[in-house]
C-alpha cells in the first residue's frame, strides 16, 4: 500500500504568499497615511531646529553676520562702506549721507555694514571690507558692480557717474595702466598689456607705496567670490602682514596669475585722489574736479577726519 506523501515545504514561498502575509494587520491605506504623517512631523521638527540654530547665530553678540531678508535693489552699482561702531556718530552719519546722496542721483544703491558684523578671528578690523563685499553681493545678486569706498574717502564731485567714468569697457581700456610694476617702484610682476575692458573684474589704484584699498571696484560673479575667498584666506589673516589686508592683496595679485589677468590698474585720481597721504607722484594728488577725495590715515595718528573733511562737506552742502 502506498501512502500519499505530504507536500514538501520550500524556503521560497510563491509571490502571493508574501503579499498575503503583508495584508495581515494594518490596512495599506492606513499604513500609507501614518507614513505620510510621520514624514510631516519629522520635517516640522527639522525646520524648528534650523530656526533655533539661525536665531542663535544672529544673536551671537554681533560676531555673526547680520543678514537682511531682501533680494537687493537691482541697482547697477552698490557702494559699500564699512562703519566702525566706535567712531564718532556724527561723522559716520555724514559719510553715509554722502554715499546715499550720490547713489540716489545715479540710481545706485548703498550698503553700510559694521566691522564687528564679521568674525575676523583677531585680525585687524580693516579686514572687514573683504567679507562685507561678499555680503553685499549676496544681498544684491542682480547688481553688477560693487564699489568699496572707505570712511576716509568722500565723493566730492557727485555729478560724475561711476559707470561712464570708469566702468564702461571702452573708457576703462583708455584708463588702464599697463606694463607697470604692481608694487612700486620695481616689482618684477607687472600689469598685463593686452587685457580687454569687458574682461576686467576688479579695478584698483596705486599710490606711491602700493595697491590701494580706500577705493576699488569689483564685478559680481563667480570669479569675484574666488578672489574674495583667496584674499580672506585664514593664512593671510594670521600671517601678521605689516599692512594687514593691503599686503595680502599685493601678495595674491603678484603670485596668482588668475587674479592679475582680471585686474585693471587705473590712475589714482580717477577714483581715489589723496588730499593727504602717500599719493602717486604721477596722478595721485587731489585737484579740484576730481571725483573722490581721500584723506588717507585721517582716522589714525592723532588726526581728525571730521576736521579735515569739513570744508569739503561744506562745499557739497552749499
In this structure, how is the largest beta sheet organized?
Answer: 6 strands, mixed
From the N-terminal CA to the C-terminal CA, the straight-line distance is 128 Å
Count of DSSP E strands? 9
Q: So how many helices?
A: 12
InterPro entries: Glyco_trans_34 (IPR008630), Nucleotide-diphossugar_trans (IPR029044)
GO cellular component, one term: mannan polymerase complex
Keywords: Glycosyltransferase, Membrane, Transferase, Transmembrane, Transmembrane helix
Transmembrane segments: 38-56
Describe the structure.
By secondary structure, the protein is an alpha/beta fold. The protein has a domain at 88-107 and 148-317: Spore Coat Polysaccharide Biosynthesis Protein SpsA, Chain A (Alpha-Beta Complex). Helices cover 40% and strands 11% of the residues. The strands form 2 sheets. A 6-stranded mixed sheet has the order 2-1-3-6-5-7, with helices on both faces. Helix 4 packs antiparallel against helix 7 (222-231). The longest helix has 31 residues, at 28-58. Residues 1-24 and 50-70 have low confidence and may be disordered.
Topology overview:
Blueprint: H1 15-22, H2 28-58, E1 77-80, H3 89-106, E2 109-111, H4 129-139, E3 145-149, E4 153-155, H5 162-167, H6 169-175, E5 202-204, E6 215-219, H7 222-231, H8 234-238, H9 245-255, H10 257-260, E7 263-265, H11 268-271, E8 273-276, E9 292-295, H12 305-317
Parallel strand pairs: 1-2, 1-3, 5-7, 8-9
Antiparallel strand pairs: 3-6, 4-9, 5-6
Helix pairs in contact: 4-7
InterPro entries: Glyco_trans_34, Nucleotide-diphossugar_trans
Organism: Lophiotrema nucula
Keywords: Glycosyltransferase, Membrane, Transferase, Transmembrane, Transmembrane helix
